[in-house]
Amino acid sequence: MKQVYIILLRAVNVSGKNIIKMADLKQQLELAGFGQVRTYIQSGNILLETDMTREKLGEEIRRIILEYFSLDIGVFVLTRDLLEKALAGNPFPPDAAPNRVFITFLNAPPAAESISKLRQIDLGEDLYVLNGKVLYFYLPGGMATSKLSNNFFEQKLKVRSTGRNLNTVQKLLSLL
Fold first, then answer.
1. Residue (of 68, 55, 86, 91) closest to 22 by Cα position
2. 3-78: CATH number
């Protein structure tokens, strides 16, 4: 049975690196037989329909990107249910600026030792909450003044991750 998936690519079109034109990627995914392919903005957000499993879909998209764009990119495949649960689990107040609240998806739950080390770091006014394979962080002063980023959390938690701000996550959900 076909299902709609949300695919988040890690670090695409950021600071002039890992450049993939979403229109070109959309075309390659359609040629590969995926249905209802849509992209949202240029940061690696894809919605599509397939009867593949999440795991197989992630492998196939990674292969297509490697073959056609010569980039080895992290691919995170989410279902509507996972996206809804992540959004519902946002621990920050509704009045927090949605462009300063981030929802980050991890490829695995971090080890207890890594979490313990992270808790010892002074993050100033920045806040984070870890819930299994979903990490939420709030940057009251904005991204420019914060040390928190996907790279920061990947290094400290020893996992792979990709994140989007609350506005983007809400928009992706509305596109389903």
1. 68
2. 3.30.70.1280
Residue matched to tokens 């929802």: 103
The residues spanned by each domain of the chain are 3-78, 89-174
> Is 89-174 assigned to CATH 3.30.70?
yes
pTM value?
0.93
Query: End-to-end alpha-carbon separation of the chain, Å?
Result: 17
Question: Same CATH topology for 3-78 and 89-174?
Answer: yes
Amino acid letter, 54:
R
Nearest to 147 by CA among 128, 166, 169: 128
**How far, in Å, CA of 37 to CA of 28, rounded?**
10
Give Dmax (Cα) for the chain: 49
pLDDT at 18 over 90: no
DSSP H or E stretch at residue 94: none
Nearest CA among 43, 54, 32, 59 for reference residue 172: 43
Q: CA–CA separation, 64 vs 72, rounded Å?
A: 10
* pLDDT reported for residue 53: 96
Closest CA to 29 of 70, 60, 53: 60
Checking if the pLDDT of 119 tops 90, the result is yes
